Amino acid sequence: MADEKSQTKAARRSFLFKSGAALTGALAATVAASAKPSQPTPGRDGALALKLGVLEDREAVRGLYRAYEASLSEGRYEDAASHFAARSEAVFGGERFSGRDEGVRRLFTEKFREGRTGRKADIPASLHAEPLAESIEVGADRQTAKAVFPYSMRVGEPMDASLQLVQMARLHGEGILYRQESGLCELSLVREGAGWKIARAEYRAI
Amino acid sequence: MNIPMHRFAYTKLTSDQVKQKLKAADAGPTSVSALSDALAGKSIKIVLDGGPTLAYDFSSKNQLTLSENGGAKVKAGYGALTQKKVVFFAHMIPGQPKGYDVVIDQATGLATVFEVWLCGDKVDKTLSGKEVPLDQREVQRQIYFGYVDKGGEAPKERHHLTNRWAGKGIHWTQDNGIETLELYTSVASSNFVELTRHVDDLGYCAPSDYILIDDNTFVYQRTECEFSGISTLFVADLYAMTQVGVRLGFDEKDALEYYLFRGTGEIVGQLSYLEPFDDHGKGGMVVQAPGDPQAPGKGQRLVYRPVRDFQPMTDEEVHQAALKRTMAFGGAEGETAPQMTMAGNNSPFSDMMVGKKITLRYDGPVRPPFRTGQAPFSTTLRYDAGGPVRHYDFIEKFKLRYREDGESTWHTVDYRGYEGDEQLFWFSHILADSKPRASVQVAVDLLNGLTTTIHSQMGTPYFGNETSYHAIFGVAEGIEGVEPPQYMRHQYTDELVGHAFSWSYSDQMTSMHVYTSPHSMTWTIFTGNQGMGAQWGSPCIFVKLRDGVYIFCQNEEACNGAEMIELINTKISHDCGFGFSGGERGVSLSLTGAIGRHIGAFDIKRFYGPRIHAKKKGA
After folding, report:
1. What are phi and psi of A170, to 5 degrees?
2. Is residue B377 part of a domain?
3. Residue ranges, chain B, pLDDT below 50
4. Which of B523, B534, B559 minimises the CB distance to A172?
5. B77: how many CB neighbours lie within 10 A of its CB?
6. Interchain contact B396–A (C-beta under 8 A)
7. pLDDT digits over B340-374, tens only?
8. Contact A109/B527, CB-based, under 8 Å?
9. Are residues B333 and B296 part of one domain?
10. Cα–Cα distance for residue pair B577/A127, rounded to 1 Å
11. From CA B214, how far away is CA B235, in angstroms rounded?
12. Predicted model pTM
């Protein structure tokens, strides 16, 4: 078990390191490629413009995630689904939900809402041997990105609603068994117009 | 009125009928006490947060003119009563099924206004998600906090919701002779026992509001949702123990009640309320998500409407379901308790009877006499007589065989038993091949040779999928060294009446029981921070087995029809027992048990029982 854990941590560190390396490589590769968003010119100015664009993209992705996270935390489940692309999927608790208007919306407006899942919680310092790290990798063409964000949220499972007492508890928002879940939210993103949308989100509890 | 409110078929008044009947309210509320002229000749403007601005001109002590939000002035009758610094007045708006109940603190200039209306078009959502239009006769309300605009700077303070009233019990006597016992055992609901309007001393629950005016002055409002829909609202001064208020709505005969009242009260007790000490209940009970029951909106309140979700079945339908599936203890083997939510804190099972054989011999059902005919000239008193005799052989810890006296064959059935007190065995099993499907919950006092059985069976005169029950008392024969008594029996008791216990069935489920009368109880669900929240109540019975040891039995009538039969041992603050229910999925005998905490008690037993003054004759 200890070996498995250390392997997992090592793999995570490796992934994060590789992400950083990949980002560097992507930046270099993008110098020659045509990046549609800001159409940089070749040369030193173009490279700087691209670098700036990538930084802007990273901030945009981070902002998107923060907005998405806030919508879940505040119980605005429709808003949470709106951060996804039309053709997207979410994986939560090992279950896959496909299509923004079908699966993803159902995940949030039904499953999350039933359990009041999503309220942001502080990640207990004692939970992880090393702090979970955020990473954002923008694709060479700046049309796609991958990101990893640490998360910690309240997850709720409704109790057996056939019990009268549970039904009554539902009247004031109770009747739910809560646990706190922490881990990494792995995102794949696509550019849509001037902004970004989530193409895939997978929650990996740790 | 001798039909319980949860069984009474209140007329589904139409909107037109309600409006027609409300015309009588145009003149303002009636009052036994003299109306106050404190407002006569005055003009006031009330500014309300998130609500209308109300400009009043009071031409006399019973006529006013109102302009809402600067709109056209309308004339209406009104009535006002004062209570120290508080002036309270109420009026309807002619031609509309709405009005206002206004509380003004003349010392601070702060105001609390209840906009009240009938004929609401709101569609409420039940716990199963079913959308149900509200009864037209159900009084709706929206509370606004504000102030009387005197032209200067608006005050920053406001009256507000409170939990300071939570846990109190008060006996009120109004100037019209109406007596009620009110137990304010939730921040969103209350219990009330009509001591004069009803004959049976049953407690009921109603969604309620509690507002703090100042340290000793409160506003209380309840609406008898799912019953007559009538509203009772008053301002109480808990120093002087007085009240002034208004009653609005339709009674069981569909007659309009619209009157002001004064009253005097007596505090009969106080339960502990268990919220964190820095929680003052100012937020009230709110809904957190649009998809939840009781969607937010004007007039939103926490209303429990269980019968709206109930799917009635006939006796035969239930029996057919029982033939397909009659389940004892979830079909679990041995020590397993399948419903951990309701039995996680149950008492351990006992094998104390294994290898023993006893005979339980019961008297006839002990019931109040049935009375028929035209009282008082043609009265028949009828008593049942003769009770069952059952022979038991406890084969093993979870298996027994029994036979009725006169039967030659034994029935082998599953049972579960507890030692509920010293040498006091408490067990239950299904009655084999019974129709309607029945079970028994049996207390056997091995020290005294006494026994009590709760006979539980499917079906009531109202629904096939509701349970009914009665207690039978008798003696246990065959206990070594114990001679069964000839006269002594277990008996009904009111010793628990007024007491409140929280019962934690598991770490996930706690309910507070308040034993509101000798024949009724209320259960209350705690909120996340242990505030007292949703409530409902039912008739029940209490049997005393020994000092501190009782059988408590209730059926969630006009609710889900399920029965709970517990042995309560107050010496160890633990109960253990059984559930019995039936429906589409068959009939089930289940387990339940909980750890208790004594939350407090009300001194209310003295208000119950036969009196030397006749009660008001109702419908």
Report:
1. -65, -25
2. no
3. 288-291, 366-385, 618-619
4. B534
5. 17
6. no
7. 778 888 999 999 999 999 999 988 654 433 333 33
8. no
9. no
10. 41
11. 11
12. 0.82
